[in-house]
Amino acid sequence: MSPQGIKDRIAIIGMSCTKFAEHFDKGLDDLLKEAALKACQSAHVELSDIEAYWFGTAQSAMSGIALARAIGVGDKPITRVENFCATGSEALRNASYAVASGAYDIAMAIGGEKVKDSGYQGVNAAAIPDDGTGRTVTAAAMYSMIGPAYAKKYNVDVDELKRVLARIASKNHFNGARNPLAQFRKEASVDQICAMPPVAGMLGLFDCSGVADGAAAAIVVRAEDAYRYTDDPLYIKALSFVAGDGSGLLDPTYDFTTFPEIVTCVENAYTQAGITDPRAELAMAEVHDCFTPTELVLMEDLKFSRRGEGWSDISKGLFDLHGELPVNPDGGLKSFGHPVGASGLRMHYEAWLQLRNVAGEDRQIDNSRGKALIHNLGGYPGEMVSFVSIVGTNPG
Predict the structure, then answer these.
(1) Considering the entire predicted model, what is its pTM?
(2) Residues annotated as part of the active site
(3) CATH architecture, domain 139-209+235-392
């Protein structure tokens, strides 16, 4: 995969995120309008200044008309994108490359989802298949295979591993309890999480992320124009995306303890950004913790931990809010919630707050390293798309 990218050529000058929740009192239009207007306010621009939009949604709209109607813009190009749970990040990737190409001077990436008052709910819920090609297991069941496989491969006691997974959830709920925009804002202990009813395999209820309504947005310009809008932009160091071919589902040697698409994706991102020691060079990471075993494997695939040591590093607190490398300081999917089209942009919003030192006194991390990694995936073990970006406070 080519390591070429657009390092330091694009800057984020404004961002926003709505509260993620069961918004029974709001429609998709309300959420998109709130996100778009707040992003413009953040960047000190008007909606009329935005030259093009990339709109990410997986379940809530089929075209750019939904966004145009919501924000009252009927004369601008709006491209609707979707890529499983990485949809919000895909919107940002497309908007960034469009500006880098010179086609536009300023663009907005916006993602949103409204699913909580639909008749058929769930992440990527679609019509029930009737042709024999649909999956026979749930997403939770697919991801539940990771835990036993990891325990067996690295000789970790299954009960001990279950507590490690619960510690991931507890960490993220601790962080989310301090975030006013998170869906779930109560701390939960490891013992409480371990006592939750089972969902699939060794996964309990609190090993699974929530489903929410919400929206988030980012405004991007060329780096040389950033200071026309803000004194503290974020520069894009890397944008990497990989779409797997699903071969893991057919490969008898695939063991569920790694995600090959993510390994390839992050290696390319590190090459683009010039990162050689991520645990030492990054201030924080936002990762796609759709299920607690996912975050465990990601610590190794993203090279934050050595193979077979992720569970131990988690137990030591290395990825806690004030640990060596804070992971999901906003609460992650687990606590913040997961409206599919918005999640990738929500992750970038946390980096926007933390690296600019405005996250809030009770949850602000040490941002002196000045760089953040954002990881967003879609699909299942063996059949996955992966997005990784790296952003930083300074060019170069």
Answers:
(1) 0.96
(2) 85, 338
(3) 3-Layer(aba) Sandwich (3.40)
